[in-house]
Amino acid sequence: MGYSYLGDQQGPIVETRPGWEMPGMEFRAVLDIGAGVIDFRGAHREAGE
After folding, report:
1. What is the spatial distance between Cα 15 and Cα 7, in angstroms, rounded to a whole number?
2. N or C of the chain: less Cβ packing under 10 Å?
3. Which of 16, 38, 34 is nearest to 25 (CA)?
4. 40: three-class secondary structure by DSSP
5. Three-state DSSP string of the chain
6. Can you give the pLDDT at residue 2?
7. Global pTM?
């Protein structure tokens, strides 16, 4: 399995805003990555499923 970041992002994007439903801060983290199979030898399948 291989992965890479999308859009030149090298980690999560963290956003904050004041909380409206309760006192405090609201946080949101977004991680833009793509993943795919590089080699079939790491795959495993159960018989009968």
Report:
1. 17
2. C
3. 16
4. helix
5. CEEEECCCCCCCEEEEEECCCCCCEEEEEECCEEEECCCHHHCCCCCCC
6. 76
7. 0.47
